[in-house]
Amino acid sequence: MVTKLKEVDAVVVGMGWTGAILSRELTKAGLNVVGLERGPMRTPRDDFAIPAIRDELKYTNRHELFQDTAMETVSLRHAMSETALPMRRHGSFLPGTGVGGAGSHWNGATWRNLEVDYVVRSHYTEKYGRNAIPADMTVQDFGVTYAELEPHFDKFEKLCGISGQAGNLRGKKIDGGNIFEGPRANDYPNKPLARNFASSTFDTAARSLGYHPFPQPSANASEAYTNPEGATMGQCVYCGFCERYGCESNAKASPNVSVLPVLLPDPKFELRTNSYVKKLNYDRAAKKVTSVTYVDTRTGEEYEQPAGLVILGAYVFNNTLLMLYSGIGTPYDPVTGRGSVGKNYCYQYTGAGVTVFFEDAETNPFMAAGAFGTIMDDFNGDNFDHSGLGFIGGGHISAGLSNGRPIETRAVPPGTPRWGKAWKEANAKWYRRWFNVAGTAVNYAYRDNYLDLDPTYKDALGRPLIRMTYNFKENDYKIGAFLSQKSAEIAKAMNPTIMTEPRFRRGDYDSRPYQSTHNTGGTIMGTDPSTSVVNRYLQSWDASNLFIMGASVFPQNQSYNPTGPLGALAYWSADAIVNKYMKAPGPLMQA
Amino acid sequence: MTEVKLPRRDFLKAAGAASAAGAAAATGIAACSPAAETAATAPPAEPEIWLTLNATEAAFVKAVVDTLIPADELTPSGTDVGLATFIDRQLAGGFGNGAKLYRSGPFLPGKPEHGYQLALSPRDFFRAGISEANAWTTKTYGKEFDRLTVEQRNEALTAIETGKAQFNGGFTSNFFFDNFLQLSMEGFFADPMYGGNKNKVAWKMIGFPGLPASYREEVKTYFNKKYDKEPQSIADFS
């Protein structure tokens, strides 16, 4: 039996970054908002406190804060001709669950996309000709520009107290910041974090070769900070337990630290945890979502929550699953190219570089913050001439150690055995004397990389799993070869004792080793309803009271970590909802 | 180096009653390692208790972790730093019984890139793997793994690591090895409260200081300088 509840103004699905931001903006605009979170409550006081939080086995290896893959996962095949198999445990990416979502256990790398990232198709076509983009590469423009998003990036940076160094302040280039960034109205709210041996050595080497390194913009606060909402952050203590962990110092921006302290006490907001949204109930004729059905995971009982406005703020896979399972929009068909739900699934192409070892160094990898490196963007986006390279896009190259957690983060020189006395000696010698120099590349969309419903495997609620048909492509391998060579050149300038051969990912996408939790696409944004799921305000083309948040709206993935860009888009969409939609409910763009 | 002389059941009885150092000596392994020299002064160890491993499995696990982590000037042996205890506890608990593992069928082999696709819980996977490994060493050397000499153990484990050992249980020997090695590394480097990394030996070996509360100043004052502090574990903060 389903219990039908009283209608509310707005229901928000998922209480990660975007769910928390939208809940806050909508309650401020006067709406009564119910937040539905499938996982448990998580508070810094109870869940992120020392010493328990500094437990590598529990949080990294036993996946304490992540989505429970016994309940749901995704299936993977590398090509349409293959049978997909479920990823039975996490590896390559780590979606969150519980209040704060993955926003509670991220590293904190917080970017603004490059200007070109929003206009990938038009820019490369215009500059390099019609053949620059391969026929089966389905990249699209976002339908919104960097300039339009600039105030919303600014707002998200202030919410998070980002530590960084501006490189382009209202058009004025500043040495030491990222000179390739789009113009920003304001500097970062906090100065950059301290540097360690790895990031400092990389900075010197990159500079000596004429490049433009800068400190990673970071949601790890370099100073104590109070954000415009009145939420307070502590100063980062460089403990080296960031990604996969909550922050016991409240120094890492998260929904739990940056938004919920002001949102939870608001009488206009009600948070229901253990409330797992199963389906959106869709009125096809009215082109509206009338309610959401959710399961109380403690009792198994189902509830129907009617709402005037529905915000989808789950992770990429669940946003796409809810659209497909609820029958909203047209599922993408890779053969005909028609439909758009599930289209343009992208990931991140990481680890194109080298490992360097320094015999006499003390890198102290355990004194670290999550977003702590030195970066250079000289080979990112279209910041360099692509003529004759055979690929489009690029990547940022970085160095720095985000942690020294010993189960996970060790390296030994090539040729070292994996066990035994020689292995022990190599670890004793090199654990504190290495780091990586590597590129993280864009990952562009292809016709046959997409998400749909798995025909065989089901989740704990009886719904099909999301099936991922995905592989890296020629564009990725070419960027990988390019970035690994560039990384090696910089690494060589550091004069390390030992340097590995340049490496980059080849062959089939591997679901086992962690790469990044930068999954994108599936409910992509755009200005044409035949090639996108939501319009440029993140409003569904098929349900005018449904807005979809998060990286699932990216038409393709940029080289940068997605949290900054999706935070800005959340504020951009919230602004459109409050200042346009609420005044005249209905489609904000005509199909 | 001598072979094991005691029948396993007697050895296990002895191991249960005597100190760990004594038990190590009984295996014939520690007799030529520095750890044995300190046996006389070592405090009496706790009795060996297994939550889930049976006698044959316990003997195998101890022999393998002693091969992966041999006693030397850096650390005592794998067994003496608690790795067998760690593996037993992990297999007996949530991890071993398939917590956070998607276990709906159909179960198909897939490619390596699909990751773990077996219907077995990790506990039963280790049971199957140990059985296969012992069957292979019995066929090859006439003995189960724990009865082999140190040289033979190294040779056999290399064959298992590289997939040269023939397994018939639906998975390769190298797949079993990779999972065994991962669990052993987790035990070696995890917080000592889980039973491995006893006395924080692995942390001391590499220079990981554990979990001090803050490096706010140290990140600057120890720039490219050795941070040589006694490691702190969760128990030290509790």
Structural account:
- The complex is a heterodimer of chains A (591) and B (238).
- With 591 residues, chain A is an alpha/beta fold.
- Chain A has one domain: FAD/NAD(P)-binding domain (3-Layer(bba) Sandwich), CATH 3.50.50.60.
- Chain A is built from eleven helices and 22 strands.
- Chain A is globular.
- The relative contact order of chain A is 0.19.
- Chain B is mainly α and 238 residues long.
- Helices cover 45% and strands 0% of the residues of chain B.
- In chain B, helix 1 (8-17) packs antiparallel against helix 2, helix 5 crosses helix 8 (173-189) and helix 7 packs across helix 8.
- The relative contact order of chain B is 0.11.
- At the A-B interface, helix 3, strand 5, helix 9 and strand 19 of A face helix 7, helix 8, helix 9, helix 10 and helix 11 of B.
Can you give me a brief rundown of this structure?
The complex is a heterodimer of chains A (591) and B (238). Chain A has 591 residues and is α/β, with parallel strands linked by helices.
Number of structural units classed as domains of chain A: 1
Profile the largest sheet of chain B: none
Oligomer: heterodimer
- Report the sheet with the most strands of chain A, covering strand number, pairing sense and barrel closure: 8 strands, mixed
Name of the top-level CATH class of chain A? Alpha Beta
Q: What's the N-to-C terminus distance of chain A? A: 38 Å
Q: Overall mean pLDDT score of chain A?
A: 97
How many DSSP E strands of chain A? Answer: 22
Number of helices of chain B: 11
List the helices and strands and how they pair.
The complex is a heterodimer of chains A (591) and B (238).
Chain A: E1 2-4, E2 8-13, H1 17-28, E3 33-36, H2 44-47, H3 56-61, E4 74-77, E5 85-86, H4 120-128, H5 146-160, E6 168-169, E7 172-173, H6 197-208, E8 214-215, E9 225-226, E10 232-233, H7 255-263, E11 269-272, E12 275-283, E13 288-296, E14 302-312, H8 316-326, E15 349-357, E16 374-376, E17 395-399, H9 421-430, E18 434-441, E19 450-458, E20 464-469, H10 474-493, E21 498-499, E22 546-548, H11 563-581
Parallel strand pairs in A: 1-14, 2-3, 2-14, 3-11, 4-20, 14-22
Antiparallel strand pairs in A: 4-5, 6-7, 8-16, 9-10, 12-13, 13-14, 15-18, 15-21, 16-17, 17-18, 19-20
Helix pairs in contact in A: 1-7, 1-11, 5-11
Chain B: H1 8-17, H2 20-26, H3 34-37, H4 55-68, H5 83-92, H6 122-141, H7 150-161, H8 173-189, H9 201-206, H10 218-221, H11 234-237
